[in-house]
Amino acid sequence: MGKLKSTIKKLAQIAVEKVEIELNKSTGKEKKLAAIKYIISNLPIPFAFKPVIEIFLSHFIDDAVEFAVAYMKLKQSNKQEG
Fold first, then answer.
1. Domain ranges in the chain?
2. Measured distance CA(67)–CA(72) in Å, rounded
3. What pTM value is reported for the model?
4. pLDDT tens digits for 45-71?
């Protein structure tokens, strides 16, 4: 399970950056849902298990997306200051 959680964290960072570019004018809720969809669709597990993982790890996935958003904002803030 640890490797799967690590993969989810990495996918969350990719998803947040990708979604921010593609859905720039959308609401935060729309972006979060798109990021979660991206994460689930790119998990390296058989398709049949993806809905189960989505439910079983939904809180962890939400937290990973929120952390990735905070990290992206911090990076953007640091770029503007520097």
1. 2-81
2. 9
3. 0.90
4. 999 999 999 999 999 999 999 999 999
